[in-house]
Design a protein that fits this description.
- Helices cover 41% and strands 15% of the residues.
- The chain is built from 24 helices and 18 strands.
- The strands form 4 sheets. It has a 7-stranded mixed beta sheet with strand order 3-13-15-14-16-18-17, with helices on both faces. A 7-stranded mixed beta sheet has the order 5-4-12-7-8-9-11, with helices on both faces.
- The longest helix has 35 residues.
Length: 769
């Protein structure tokens, strides 16, 4: 053991030059070789004894065994034992250390967490798009549409009536038959019924029988001199002002058409008119002289007595009224009543362009033409039901689009509600059949909705939006309205979010023309500039308007219509016979074509991995408004109407931010793996944020419910900024420079916020502003 310790000591504390040298020598006289191992110290001794020159030629010298070879077997044995001892000690230490660690993991009472590797969502493979398109056209049949039109026709189904409820149950049964798990929601809303003593007097004498009415009119009796104001548009009243016509206290006579009844009344009320009478001019309407006209004058949608919140379950809120309720009475009159009044009006001749083929040689009116208007409408509460059915998506079931149609009407309402309801049910049947029998698997969900109280201003739809706005704004990517889709045959018009323009155009190219099967709908109606030929602004009268401007959901409304005559919506002449007359007996064919348009848009939005919504389309829309504002601001600054400190820099920067965000998203799409479902969902989420981000967060939904700065209405919109600059130029009373600067700043930040939302994550946002 002493020798072992000595050897170990030499290993760890030996002299610096102590190393082992191996020397291989060949026995020149035999076949065996000898291996010589020398310790350096031994070698040095040998070199010193024999000389360097001699060591070089040592293979010629006699063989001398090394000192190691001369050690005793006992020494060698101790050396080997020491090495084995060290090896065993190291092995035991490593083994015990590893064993201790394993025991701690096994005996631990806490569960061992192993982060799972996230599974990559696998794409759901469905039918090819060309096969899907062919299948829809094959299964959507005129026979089924005809059967639905017959089943859902009703002489009386005003909102909240027994007739309306009976139709709701029929729709419910259809959805149940299609295995769509239907449900309903009910609302208690306030509407106006016609007063029994509504009347109109001209020069002290009653004028005919007043049967029609305008819901939500102010209840009052007023008297004033008559004033004819053409269509009651802002430009019409501006024309009267240019002629120095005093509108204060006047009873204004206005032709129906071009804009909603509510907008006509609001324009007149803003100029201190005392009342409004609206009539259907024979130049526009082919109806009987005594046909009554019905409508509403709430400058908004939904229940005006629960503005901004839903009318659920008799929910008690402090008394509230919509700011869109008129403060003056409004009433409709028949062609016969209008003839009796307007043929006797005196005063100045009509401005150029107003007497465009009118049957009467009428004038603007003078001080002797007194009219008395008495409105006694009755406010009542009604329970209404919306009916829903859903086709759930196979991948992103929590992302859905909505297809809706109004169910109620003032009278028969064949074109107003029956056609839309029948088409809604037929589309639901067709798509469920494609899923059941043809292996179609929509990636996202489709909600079918039958609305009530649409005649009072999309009340049922708006109340639903108000009740579920938070979730709908995040999960609903599109809305398609089927209301009034057929009212003629020689014109096709549509209103939509710019996000849907490209999808609508491509769809029109895939649907056959209604007059020539070898051509497309696009070739029939939009061969040159399709946007100018087909697209028109979405107005308050469109049933898709609350989805678009109140909820920020990209929406589409379209219709086949007449280019020459207005269809008698809101009258008792809205019947199947009337519609056949307006469509030249091609109603079924047109309804099927409308179904193909709505169906193909729907299928495209739920079939593809990426949503077919073009965010770059808003780039040109926003840029156009910014260009107008810039030119007018610089013009007003030159004449010192606006302070020079008002800079366009921030608005231009916000516009640039949106441009870059849209371009970046297009680049991301081009460079992405579109079979990666998680990546597609991330991109789709960015696309879905755009429309909602254009709702101004700086105005109250109660005071300004249509908060969309591009497609909405109110002082927060980009169009209002342009109008305000015009008011500043004309030094009008409505002009307020400080208010304009505030609106200017808020619009700027709304655009920037939309750009940020489109950019995606916070670290990708453009902070140049």
């Amino acid at each position: 053991m002493d020798q072992a310790r000595t050897t170990i000591s030499k290993i760890f504390n030996g002299e610096p030059r102590s190393y082992t040298r191996f020397n291989l020598t060949q026995n020149m006289e035999g076949d065996n070789s000898h291996v010589e191992m020398k310790l350096s110290s031994d070698m040095d001794d040998e070199v010193e004894a024999n000389g360097v020159g001699e060591s070089i030629n040592q293979h010629n010298r006699p063989y001398y065994p090394s000192k190691l070879n001369q050690r005793s077997p006992k020494t060698i044995c101790g050396f080997v034992i020491a090495i084995l001892f060290l090896f065993i000690i190291g092995y035991l230490i490593g083994y015990l250390s590893n064993k201790s660690t394993v025991k701690n993991e096994i005996k631990s009472d806490c569960p061992v967490f192993s982060e799972p590797t996230p599974e990559r969502p696998q794409p759901v493979y469905s039918l090819d798009w060309s096969d899907l398109r062919t299948l829809l056209k094959k299964k959507l049949t005129t026979n089924n549409i005809k059967s639905n039109l017959k089943e859902f026709s009703s002489v009386s189904h005003q909102a909240g009536s027994s007739g309306d409820e009976a139709l709701a149950n029929k729709v419910m049964d259809k959805f149940r038959t299609f295995k769509m798990t239907p449900w309903t929601d009910e609302h208690y809303v306030k509407v106006q019924d016609r007063g029994t003593s509504n009347k109109v007097l001209f020069r002290g004498n009653a004028v005919g029988t007043t049967e029609g009415y305008l819901a939500y009119s102010a209840v009052a009796t007023v008297e004033g001199t008559a004033l004819y104001a053409h269509y009651g548009r802002a430009e019409d009243f501006r024309r009267l002002r240019e002629l120095d016509v005093d509108m204060n206290g006047k009873v204004v006579l206005i032709r129906a058409g071009l804009l909603s009844f509510a907008e006509k009344v609001a324009n007149a009320a803003s100029l201190n008119a005392s009342a409004v009478l609206i009539y259907p001019d024979p130049l526009n309407y082919e109806i009987n002289d005594d046909t009554a006209l019905f409508g509403h004058v709430h400058l908004g949608t939904g229940d005006p007595y629960t503005p901004g919140f839903p009318s659920f379950n008799h929910t008690q809120f402090p008394p509230a009224e919509s700011s869109g309720l008129p403060l003056i009475p409004a009433q409709t009159i028949t062609i016969k009543q209008a003839t009796e009044i307007m043929s006797k009006l005196g005063g100045r001749t009509l401005p150029d362009g107003w007497n465009d083929g009118m049957l009467w040689d009428t004038r603007l009116g003078n001080e002797d033409d007194n009219i008395t208007v008495e409105v006694n409408n009755v406010l009542v509460q009604r329970k209404i039901h919306n009916v829903f059915g859903v086709i759930k998506g196979y991948m992103d079931a929590d992302r859905y689009m909505v297809i809706g149609a109004q169910r109620d009407a003032w009278g028969p309402g064949f074109a107003r509600s029956t056609v839309g309801t029948s088409l809604l049910v037929e589309l639901a049947r067709t798509i469920t059949d494609m899923i059941k029998n043809d292996d179609f698997k929509p990636k996202r969900s489709i909600v079918f909705a039958s609305w009530s109280a649409g005649e009072f201003g999309s009340v049922g739809a708006t109340e639903w939006l108000e009740g579920y706005l938070t979730s709908l704004n995040l999960k609903t990517f599109s809305y398609i309205s089927l209301d009034e889709v057929i009212s003629g045959f020689d014109s096709f018009k549509a209103s939509a979010s710019p996000l849907l323009y490209d999808l609508l155009e491509s769809t029109m190219k895939q649907v056959s023309s209604t007059v020539d099967a070898t051509k497309s709908l696009h070739e029939q109606f939009a061969a040159s500039n399709w946007e100018k030929s087909v697209m028109e602004p979405m107005s308050l009268s469109h049933s898709a308007y609350p989805f678009q401007s109140f909820s920020g959901i990209p929406s589409l409304s379209f219709r086949f219509t007449s280019s020459s005559k207005s269809y008698p919506f809101g009258t008792f002449e809205d019947t199947e016979l009337s519609l056949d007359r307006y469509t030249s007996s091609s109603t079924l064919k047109l309804v099927k074509t409308a179904g193909e348009v709505a169906g193909l848009v729907t299928l495209r939005l739920v079939h593809d991995h990426l949503l077919k919504l073009n965010v770059a389309k808003y780039t040109s829309v926003i840029r156009n408004y910014v260009s107008q504002i810039r030119a007018k601001v610089e013009s007003r600054q030159m004449v010192r109407r606006l302070p020079s400190t008002l800079s366009m820099q921030w608005l231009l920067s916000a516009q640039g931010s949106y441009d870059r965000a849209a371009s970046n998203l297009v680049s991301v799409i081009h460079n992405s793996d579109l079979d990666d479902m998680e990546q597609c969902r991330i991109i789709n989420d960015r696309i879905m944020r755009v429309e909602g981000s254009l709702l101004s967060p700086y105005v109250s939904p109660r005071e300004s419910p249509f908060r969309h700065i591009v497609l909405g209405s109110g002082s927060h919109t980009l169009a209002a900024l342009v109008d305000h600059l015009e008011a500043i130029r004309g030094n009008l009373k409505s002009a307020d420079v400080d208010q304009f600067r505030n609106q200017f700043a808020l619009a700027t930040w709304t655009i920037q916020g939309c750009a940020n939302a489109l950019a995606g994550e916070v670290w990708n946002m453009d902070n140049e502003i």
